[in-house]
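During the second half of the funding period, the structural biology subgroup turned its attention to how the target accommodates small molecules. The most pressing case was zinc ion, which had performed well in the primary screen but for which no bound structure existed. We therefore specified the complex as follows and requested a full 3D prediction, including the ligand pose.
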Amino acid sequence: MNTSINASANLLKEKNISPSIQRIRVLDYLQNSKNHPTVDNIYIDLVKEIPTLSKTTVYNILKLFTEKNIARTVRIGNNEARYDGNTSTHGHFKCDKCGNIYDFNVNTEELKFTGLDKFRINEYHIYLNGICEKCNTE
Ligand SMILES: [Zn+2]
Ligand SMILES: [Zn+2]
């Protein structure tokens, strides 16, 4: 086992999730992926190594991970759900041209909202779309 696989197994144990090979592989994939993969992306890549894997299993694992707060769902517009191994507060920028989703940092203390005085905020989802740096210079 390499170190990132070990780290994934340990994180699952910390969250009281029994570390099956499939869960470890999905978590490892998510944490090493910068591109916010869909269920399909994860399934297509991992089934090569784990032939017994099914798409339903991948979906159920991701559902468990989001409940246990080791992954987040990312939805922009009507797009299918994508998954993010980065659970810290950050924003997402979707490029209208290449479809990539980029992470960016958000300083939530500098955000100003009005009309929510008596509300409690649990999560921030900050989504922007436009043309990314790469597509903009092409
Ligand atoms: Zn782009
Ligand atoms: Zn992200």
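Two results from this model are relevant to the next phase. The chain has two domains: 3-74, 88-136. The longest helix spans residues 55-67.
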